Amino acid sequence: MTRAAPGTADLGEAPGVAAVAAAIREGRTTAVAVTRRLLERITALDLTQSGFVAVDAEGALARARDLDAARAAGRLAGPLHGVPVGLKDLLFVRGLPNTCGTGLRDYWTAGEDCTVARRLAVAGAIVLGKLMMSELAMGTFGVNAVQGTPRNPRAPDRVPGGSSSGCGVALAAGLVPGAVGSDTGGSIRIPAACCGVVGLKPTYGRVSRAGVMPLSLALDHVGPMGRSVRDVALVLAAIAGHDAADPTSSPAPVPDYPALLDAPPAGVRVGVPDDDYFGDVAPEVRESLDVAARRLASAGAAVVRRPLPDPRPLTEVTGTIVRAESAFEHRARLAEPDALQPLVRERLEAGCRIPAVEYLDARARLARLREAFLRDALASVDALLLPMLGDVPPRVEEATAGSGEEIAARMATFARFARFVNGLGAPALVLPAEPVTTSLPVAVQLVGRPFAEDVLLRLGVAIEGGRAGGR
Question: Catalytic: 88?
């Protein structure tokens, strides 16, 4: 990346949200200088390297100039004053494309900017543009035959993870300090794991979904991604909270997440599943989980081994629900013969064949399974330490080989530690782990009680702080 303009701080190749916000607040750089450097870096790359489907250079620079003028007058818009961010291309922003991973510039529209975009603006953020995604958010590998598959900066021959693939890629490449994605079955957490960044699926209802293309209203979550746990906490604090435009959003008070990060997790109880849970987990993942557990224990957390309820019934019912609800949301596209990739079409058509009785039974079973799992898994601990992926990210050609049925089965295996958590509606934080015997990205997942994001963030800081080369 080019050096900063004279009189401003050089924040390095890949600054995060916290670093940029502090440098602008303290007068060591300007919003214009940061925005220009990132735009230069983005435009020097091709589509699949940047992860962007659209860049709003003119709008971003105009916004940056206004924010610099406000700071010169002694006014800061908010805690994200001057911080550039990217949005997954299903969060509607007026004047920008909303392709939702399709070949249409405006596949899905809303009457006004999504609530997340408006709240980011109030906090002082600058939207650089829209980030690539799997078609209709239906793809855990992040592969997109329509727009191209964004290249994983950590491992160019490996999948970037989906469906918020562009968020993971742009963050890992140092093109945005922060991003916002969505997660219906792992779509924030999987690309975070594959690209070696941090992602948080908040509690269901913690962040408004108004103005966001729906996939499954029962399971969709919107949440932040960043280069560090602190970055994610700053963005979450800006976008969380009740929204009258989203009837599922929660009125629960929003804690000051960044202020709580420095409290050590002394006495926090973290459950780690017993050995039966790890039967098909790769040694590299198991080793990194052990390292993370030791980091938590060193920070004062009480790490306990315990059996975990079988998550497969939750995964089964969430699969039925998302197939039915996604088919309902996107049924109009099925009338267009060449409008969809074959695998996406097959999944939507399968959803159309689910009887109403089966769908309603799945909704009822989900409520019972959620209550039982949360009770049994988190009754005596504050959080769970789990794998995010069972193995390192696969090569793109390996992930996409074979028939649609084979690819779908491969995706289900790939996302098996992610999907059941959406059924819980509970928060889950994913962050890079210390690789022991591999140079490829490895991540761990922390799952907590509903609305206990602050606990997960504190635990994440403890893991991150001991990670060699941690940002």
Answer: yes
